[in-house]
Amino acid sequence: MEKLRMTSPDLTEANIDKLAELFPTVITETLDADGNPQRAIDFDLLRQELSDHIVDGPQERYRLDWPGKRAAAFAANAPIAKTLRPVREESVDFDTTKNLFIEGDNLDALKLLQESYLGKVNVVYIDPPYNTGNDFVYNDHFAESNEDYLVRSGQQSQSGERFVANAESNGRFHSDWLDMMYSRLKLARSLLSDDGVIMVAIGDREHANLRLLLDQVFGSDNFISDVVWQGGRKNDSRYVSNGADYMMIYAKNERHLSELGVRWREPKVGLESALAKAASLWSSRTSDADAERQWKSWLKKAKASRDITDSVARYDQLQPGTGRPMSTYRDITGSSRLRV
User: Fold this and answer.
1) pLDDT average per 10 residues of sequence, the chain (340 residues)
2) Are 183 and 177 in contact (CB under 8 A)?
3) What is the DSSP string of 188-215?
4) What is the pLDDT of residue 318?
5) Do residues 110 and 191 touch, judged by C-beta distance below 8 A?
6) Taking the alpha carbons of 82, 88, 92, 95 in that order, is the dihedral positive or negative?
7) What pLDDT, on a 0 to 100 scale, did the predictor assign at position 291?
8) Residues 295-323: pLDDT tens digits?
9) H runs (alpha helix) in the chain
10) Average pLDDT, the chain
11) Most C-beta atoms within 10 A of its C-beta, which of 2, 220, 312, 314?
12) Cβ–Cβ < 8 Å for 206, 174
């Protein structure tokens, strides 16, 4: 049965929709009288779109800004009257364990960790909400399900009946998401040691904003990588089946990592056994030619049985067969040498 609309149309929203079709660049977000995010028009940009000359407006600068940013910075610095309470009955080896599991609001937890772990954390990994509008809605200092939010905001009854045609979800606003992330990233950065790194998983919707936000909190010079990895594929996507997710990686101090000579490289399969075999052959050789013959034979068998990778097997190419002892091997990572 068709339900009658009991209110008149929202003409402001309708007009914003029309302007968005003509001038998408003038659409922004602001806060209403109750502090909730809402769509709005940037009238300075609209004036520029309708003018044939440069219109005077607020000073332009390169920055990421949004309504609520100053409040988010304040939230990160504001003290709290809370403490961590041990739950011994649910713990294993509480007094001797080297692991710590904290349950509670993550903003409060990050603040409580500042005193004991300031500058001592090597790696921070976070997997925040992707702000898709259907995972959860964040509001102030708590997260709630989309259904709970609709009930609390008067958009849905306890039985699930929607009161409005198009329910609004704060989780779809970029500003709310940026508020939530900004304060937590600032606190996470202060926990990191000078050689520490942070890794943040993210999806398409907030990928661009996250990069700018991390640049602002950590500094663009400390950007390490934007790793793309294959996630779940959705075959019911309307346009393309995008199965990619991302992981932003930033250092607390990339220059310090470089000075320490830090390299994130996984040893090649079979590298250690190959180097040990080479050292054994050349140390017990009766002649260089005999050692070289045994070495090549071992490489061939190890490669066939997949005990070593092709790159490890290329040690064979480092021997020109001159009969001279192979005095130096270069590690295939190019970062070290091994005397044999």
Assistant:
1) 60 82 81 82 82 74 81 87 89 87 89 92 92 56 50 55 46 80 93 95 91 92 90 67 86 92 77 78 78 83 78 53 37 31
2) no
3) HHHHEEEEEEEEEEE-STTHHHHHHHHH
4) 42
5) yes
6) positive
7) 79
8) 888 888 888 887 777 666 655 544 433 33
9) 11-22, 43-49, 69-77, 106-117, 146-152, 174-191, 207-218, 254-259, 271-283, 288-304, 310-313
10) 76
11) 312
12) yes
The values of phi and psi at residue 185, to 5°, are -65, -40
Please tell me the distance from the alpha carbon of residue 245 to that of residue 232, in angstroms, as a whole number.
Answer: 9
CA distances from 4 to 8, 36, 167, 287, 316 (A): 11, 28, 16, 97, 81
Distance CA 319, CA 325 (A): 9
Q: 156-165: long-range contacts (C-beta < 8 A, 24 or more apart)?
A: 165/5
**Backbone dihedral angles phi then psi of residue 60, each to the nearest 5 degrees:** -85, 140
**Position 42: which residue type?**
D
CA distance 220 to 211: 9
What are the φ/ψ torsions at residue 22 (nearest 5 degrees)? -85, -45
Burial string for 50-84 (b: 16+ CB within 10 Å, else e) reads: eeeeeeeeeeeeeeeebbbbeebeebbeeeeeeee
Q: Measuring CA to CA, which residue among 323, 204, 190, 200 is closest to residue 250?
A: 200
Q: d(Cα 284, Cα 278) in Å, to the nearest integer?
A: 10
